[in-house]
Design brief:
Rossmann fold, alpha/beta
Amino acid sequence: MIVISEMIHPIALDILSSHEVYYDPELYRNPDALFAHVALARGLIVRNKTQVNAELMAGAPYVQAVGRLGVGLDNIDQEVLQQSGVQLIVPQGANAISVAEYVLGMTIAFQRRFLRMTSQVRQGQWIRDMSGGELAGKTLAVIGYGATGQAVALRAQAFGMVLKIFDPYAKTATPGNTRTLEEALKGADIVSLHVPLSHETHHLINQSTLRLLHSHSLIINTARGELINEPDLLRALETKKLGGAILDVRETEPPQTGDLLSALPNVFSTPHIAGLTEDSQLAIARYVAEGIKKVVEMNS
């Protein structure tokens, strides 16, 4: 049996139709049911809510492969999988274009005040002012230069933006590379985060690093909410020391009722959907389903 514990594109069910599949997009919310089903499973497919840890895998003796519907691995204990001989299937870069288009699209909408102006027109106002600015000539700091960071940088260059890139693990030298995070942030007009969550990157953006930005800077987070110290970000925005933020991910998802960050006029918020396009999810589901099927059938 193959267990799918979170939302997946229907193409995966077609690919896996020759196998018994238990699919419940809310299964991760019910630990008892999850443990009961993985106890009999040979394959497990998750997104970012299911915690694939030592406890879960101890109760999944037949699982031969785990598929991750996305690229973040902070909910998966890779060491436990390696020790158990379980193959991890990750569709690296499959949603990079979707996230990159989100970053540039939201940046343009923010810079040009499109949402505010749409609201004004709906209210019968016709205010033609010279608000906003072009992306051309603006400095973009790309923090993390994997597949998504590269996709963002490529599209930013087409807009004539100046790039700063920081990734201490990048394997190749790239124009715009900086040696330190501080060097990348200093003077940046726009900062886009594309690093995984780890002990090293937790609260990477905090009071100290925010001080390196100027009062018109925009910070964009489509990676993990825990990369930003949210109280520090809130203070920087409220005191006008930062121009704005585009937040697709949050430390707590969904944010609590009355969330102060979401209420600010210079914050655009979306519910963790930067990579959730029809195109990306089809590609991700196909890659993971085919990978799981191959492993399971090889070990039959």
